[in-house]
Amino acid sequence: KGLRKKLPRRLRNMLLHVWLSESVGADELLLRYMRKIFDSPERKSADFTDADVLAVHDIARTVSREAHHLIQFARLRKMADGSYYAPVSPKCNALPLAVGYFRDRFADQRWLVYDLKRRYGYAYDLHEVREVVFESLSDAPSERLTDDLLDADELAFQRLWKSYFDALAIPERFNPRLQRRQMPARFWKYLIEKE
Question: Do 82 and 110 touch, CB atoms closer than 8 A?
């Protein structure tokens, strides 16, 4: 309640972003930041000369960017049972920030977005989104899916997309540095055109 009185929603959301960053010392940083908010009569939340305030803003921006990368580069693939699956492994725990997008954008499909690094995900069954944690590692989905797990239409669309990508590419204009800057290489393993 105190944070609601002292901070606008955008700044309160930054606290969640810092918590999800999994940075070493993030909990102590949050404690120092909140103490400064409560202790000072003036607004300390925008004082970028303070190292803690600047660190909170920087970490929150990094986590927000990672959530945006999940939205951009997560690829849902149609499984043989008709559901969709997207493996991800973000640098920080940004999946909870991106789930709302998946729910709104793919509301007519059953899907699972699974964080391979943290071993949990979110599944949507056309009614509600729920968190999914697999009991054993053998039950958990993997990064690579074999063709027998994928729908026949999915395989056809993958072939079509690869041929389109190859036909569109101009070898003389190939610029790997620009490609890595606009699309980080750590996401390439999930992109069909980069396989």
Answer: yes
